[in-house]
Amino acid sequence: MQQEIKKMPLIDVDSVASDLVKIKGKLTPLDKYITAPLSEVMCIGYEYTISQRGYEKRDGRYKKIGTFEKKWKVTNSETKCSDFFLSDETGKIKVIAKDISIFIFSNETQKNDKYTLYSENILIPDKEYFVIGSAVYNTDNELIITKQNPQNQLLIIDTEFYDIAFNTSRLYKIGCTFVLLSMIILLILILFY
Question: pTM for the whole thing?
Answer without folding.
Answer: 0.75
